[in-house]
Amino acid sequence: MSIRRALISVSDKTGIVSFAKQLAELGIEIISTGGTHRVLEEAGVPVTGISEVTHFPEIMDGRVKTLHPKIHGGLLAIRDLPSHTSAMEENGIEAIDLVVVNLYPFQQTIQKPGVTVEEAIENIDIGGPSMVRSAAKNHQYVTVVVDPADYEEVIAQLQKDGSTSLETRRQLAAKAFGHTAAYDALIANYFNELLGITFPEQLTVTYNKQQALRYGENPHQQAAFYREPRAAAGTIASAKQLHGKELSYNNINDANAALELVREFSEPAVVAVKHMNPCGVGIGETISAAYQKAYEADPVSIFGGIVAANRPIDKETAEQMKGIFLEIILAPSFTPEALELLSTKKNLRLLEWGDSSLTEPAAGLKVQTVGGGALVQEADLGQVTQKQCETVTERAPSEEEWKQLLFAWKVVKHVKSNAIVVAKDSRTLGVGAGQMNRVGSAVIALNQAGDEAKGAVLASDAFFPMKDTVEQAAKAGITAIIQPGGSIRDQESIDEANKHGIAMVFTGMRHFKH
Ligand SMILES: NC(=O)c1ncn([C@@H]2O[C@H](COP(=O)(O)O)[C@@H](O)[C@H]2O)c1NC=O
C-alpha cells in the first residue's frame, strides 16, 4: 500500500520533526492535532490542521479532536470494497494511510508526587487509542506507529518502496494493540489501587521487555526478562548493572532472592545465595564485618554465589570479596575505589540497587503461574519483634539468644520450605532447605553447623509436627529455638525442650516458601 496521507498526533515529540520532514520529502500529506501541529509548523514541515479535515473544532480542552468519522472512516475503510469506497465518496472521507500516535503520559502522571485523581483522569487518552486501534485493525492498508524507535524502519521502507510491507504493518499492529492493552491495564490498576482492590475480577498485569536472555533456567528453554512499568526502587528490576557480562535467567532469580533477604535487615548485612537459598548470612558493625561472617558461614557454597549487601561496598570489603569467585555483587552503591577494584574481575557482575534505608522486602503481588492459571498473593512482609513472640518453655531466652533467634528468624523466612536455620554470633552456621520432612532439614542444618551448633540457636519456618526436631537440636547442643507454634503436638516439643533446658519461643506466624 503506497502511503499518501499521514496523521501525526503525539504527546512524546521525540524525533517527530525529523520523521515528519522525511515523510514530507516523500510527498506525503501530513495532518496533525493542536500541539503536534504547532511543533511541526514551527519546524517548517508542511502540515494540515485536524480541524481543516473534520471541519469541526478541537473541543472540550482537547477531549474531542480526532474522534470524527472523517478520521475513523479514513482509517477503517476497506480500500477495495465498493460499499466502503462509495461511503467515502458520499461523505467526503479521504483515506489515511499512516498513523503516528503516542498517548497521553498516564504512567508518568500518576507517578508524580501529589497527583490528583482529576489530573490522572485528564491524562487518560481516548482519541489516541481509538485511532491506534482503528489503524491496527485495518493494517491490511494502514501503517500504525506508536513507538519513536520504529520511525527509522518505516522511513527506510518508504524511501525504498514508497510503502511498508504487510508483514511490517502486521508487526506494528500487534505492537499497537499490545500498547493500548498495557495502557488500559495501567489505568485499571490505578483505579483498583485507589479503591483498595487487590484482587480484581480481571487481573491485567503488564510488563515491558527489559532484555532478551540467552536462555532460561536451562539452555534448551528460551527466556526474556520483563519489568513492571512502575517497578519500585530497590528491586532487582530497577537495579543498575555497573560492570560485567549480561545477567542470565538464574542470575536474576538468585539476585532477587538475595536482595529480598538483605532488605530485611536494618544493621549492616550481607547475604550469599546459591540456587535461590541463602548459604551464608551475616550481620556486623560494618559491611566488611558482615561480609566476613557471611563468608565464614559457608566458605564452600559461597563460591560462584550471588552476594547482596545493604550498605555501600567500600574498598576494604571489595578487597575481601575479590579473593573468591562470585557471580554477582548487589549493593546500594559502590565507592569509586571498590568499583575500580572489583571491575578488574571479568566474570563478576556488579549491580547497584540504590536505597540502603529499606528494611523489608518489596511490597506488591507475587504471581506464580500454574498449568492454565496463576496463583496471586501478597508478598510475605511478615516480621516479628521480641514482644510479639511467646516464650513457651520454663527457661526464657537470654538477651544474646534473643538477638540470634530474631536474626535466624529473618533468614529462615527466605529459605525454601521445609526450612531450618542454625545461627550463632550473628551468622548462619547451617541452612537446611527444601526437604520433604522438617527433621530432614534440621539434620542437614545441624550437620553443617557441626561442633559450632553447641550454644547456637535454631529457627524453623513452620511448626514442629513432632518432637523429633527438638531431639536433634538438643543432641547437637542448640540452646534456643524459634518457631511459629500451632501444632496439636506442641506440648511434646515443649516438654522435650524443657527436658534439655532449651528456651523455645513461638512467633505465631509461619513463613512457608515454595
Ligand atoms: N481527544 C482526541 O480526539 C484525541 N486525539 C488525539 N489525542 C491525543 O493527543 C495527543 C497529541 O496532542 P497534541 O498534538 O495536541 O499535542 C496524543 O497523545 C494523542 O493520542 C486525543 N486526546 C485525547 O483523548
TrEMBL record:
Keyword Hydrolase attached: yes
Recorded protein name is: Bifunctional purine biosynthesis protein PurH
Family the UniProt entry places it in:
Belongs to the PurH family.
Please provide the Gene Ontology terms (biological process) for this protein. 'de novo' IMP biosynthetic process
Tell me the GO molecular function terms: IMP cyclohydrolase activity; phosphoribosylaminoimidazolecarboxamide formyltransferase activity
Biological source species? Laceyella tengchongensis
Q: Which residues form the MGS-like domain?
A: 1-146
Q: What is its EC number?
A: 2.1.2.3, 3.5.4.10
Q: Which GO terms describe its cellular component?
A: cytosol
Q: Which reaction does it catalyse?
A: (6R)-10-formyltetrahydrofolate + 5-amino-1-(5-phospho-beta-D-ribosyl)imidazole-4-carboxamide = 5-formamido-1-(5-phospho-D-ribosyl)imidazole-4-carboxamide + (6S)-5,6,7,8-tetrahydrofolate; IMP + H2O = 5-formamido-1-(5-phospho-D-ribosyl)imidazole-4-carboxamide
Domain remark from Swiss-Prot or TrEMBL: The IMP cyclohydrolase activity resides in the N-terminal region.
Pathway annotation from the record: Purine metabolism; IMP biosynthesis via de novo pathway; 5-formamido-1-(5-phospho-D-ribosyl)imidazole-4-carboxamide from 5-amino-1-(5-phospho-D-ribosyl)imidazole-4-carboxamide (10-formyl THF route): step 1/1; Purine metabolism; IMP biosynthesis via de novo pathway; IMP from 5-formamido-1-(5-phospho-D-ribosyl)imidazole-4-carboxamide: step 1/1
Which UniProt keyword terms apply here? Hydrolase, Multifunctional enzyme, Purine biosynthesis, Transferase
